[in-house]
Design brief:
about 350 residues; alpha+beta; globular
Length: about 350
């Protein structure tokens, strides 16, 4: 929590690795923190696999790495002007694609029985407020075999099960605090726009998924989540995987940064509905044990960024038969974040019992 609360030093490369010594049994922990522009989930997984090789590859003669020359100010300026020119030349085509995609989406929504949620149609919860400087972190590990058993019993995907586990946990967490909204929570689910192996970069878009926290029955909730995720994928394909990234590329960075600082300082996120309630990210991690300089990596957890008005992030990494859930929020918004971690375990147990019912009968 303390490490997550410390901003990265902009005077240095935007990543850090903290070494945590003195753990039980002589174990050592590594806490790596990097800016989200450096790597998304898939790129981070590729970086991890690249660093933690059991037998380092021997470079062939003459293939030693040589860094690029540090660009001069003149080179940086010329590159920036060239990038701006490309963005401006591509703007008419982007506007045309956007109009066509929105028209196709409008036609699809009128004919589809399942409606995906729209941004800013969400209910407000205690973690949907302006961020504070203090982060809080919790984690829990669930059995991948239990998740797969639920998947097989009900004919859904692993991601459907993960989202439903989160939904059940959030329903319990909010109910115990007397703030469960009548409308279902909406999660932003990152989707990679590229399947190629990358050691860096951020190429993600987002799907909006209703978690159906309004449903009490876990099986009904799972089936409803399955339906809405299928529809969300259709909508995502209609809009195009690169649409969000293309518009982000053309957002002026300095005016946008100034606006976001003002937005945060004024606490405006607490005055309107959030675009979504939380982010749930599911990253496929290494299926086999990793080692670094002879030491086995026992467990692996990760968390992603939280945003103004979206003060909860749940990131899931699979690793050697385990599903590791990392949860991050603000201390003032979720002082009892470990209760949510406990509720995640209970939510999977509930689904596992439901999966066993048909076999028992």
């Amino acid at each position: 929590s303390d490490i997550a609360s410390r901003p990265l030093d902009r005077g240095h490369p935007l990543w850090e690795i903290w070494v945590v010594e003195g753990l039980e049994g002589g174990r050592v922990g590594f806490v790596a923190k990097m800016h989200h522009t450096i790597a998304d989930g898939l790129a981070a997984a590729a970086l991890l696999a690249n660093v933690m090789q059991t037998v380092p590859e021997q470079p062939s003669p003459g293939s030693s790495w040589k860094p690029e020359r540090i660009p001069s100010n003149r080179t940086l300026l010329l590159d920036a002007v060239a990038d701006l020119g490309r963005d401006l030349r591509g703007l008419p085509n982007l506007l045309k694609r956007t109009f066509e995609a929105l028209t196709a989406l409008r036609r699809h929504r009128t004919s589809s029985d399942v409606k995906t949620p729209l941004p800013f149609s969400t209910p407000r919860t205690s973690f949907n407020a302006s961020l504070t400087p203090h982060r809080t972190f919790a984690m829990t590990t669930l059995s991948l075999s239990d998740v797969k058993a639920v998947r097989s019993a009900f004919g859904v995907t692993v991601n459907d099960v993960v989202l439903t586990v989160c939904a059940g946990a959030l329903r319990r967490y909010l109910s115990e605090r007397g703030e469960l909204p009548a409308k279902p929570l909406i999660a932003g689910v990152p989707v990679s726009t590229s399947t190629e192996t990358r050691l860096g970069g951020n190429r993600v878009s987002n799907m909006f998924v209703s978690l159906r926290t309004d449903l009490d029955d876990p099986v009904a909730r799972l089936k409803a989540v399955q339906e809405v995720t299928k529809e969300a994928k259709v909508v995502h394909n209609i809009l195009g995987t690169e649409m969000l990234a293309d518009w982000s590329q053309r957002t002026p960075p300095r005016p946008f940064a100034w606006f976001m600082r003002l937005y945060s300082r004024k606490g405006w996120a607490s005055r309107h509905r959030p675009p979504i309630n939380l982010v749930v990210s599911n990253v496929p991690g290494p299926p086999t044990p990793l080692e670094i300089v002879g030491a086995r990596l026992e467990t692996l957890s990760s968390v992603g960024p939280i945003l103004e008005g979206i003060g909860l992030n749940i990131t899931v990494w699979s690793y050697v038969g385990a599903m590791n859930f990392g949860i991050v929020s603000c201390r003032e918004l979720m002082p009892d974040i470990w209760s949510l971690a406990d509720a995640l375990r209970d939510s999977l147990v509930e689904l596992r019992k439901a999966a066993e019912q048909p076999r028992a009968s």
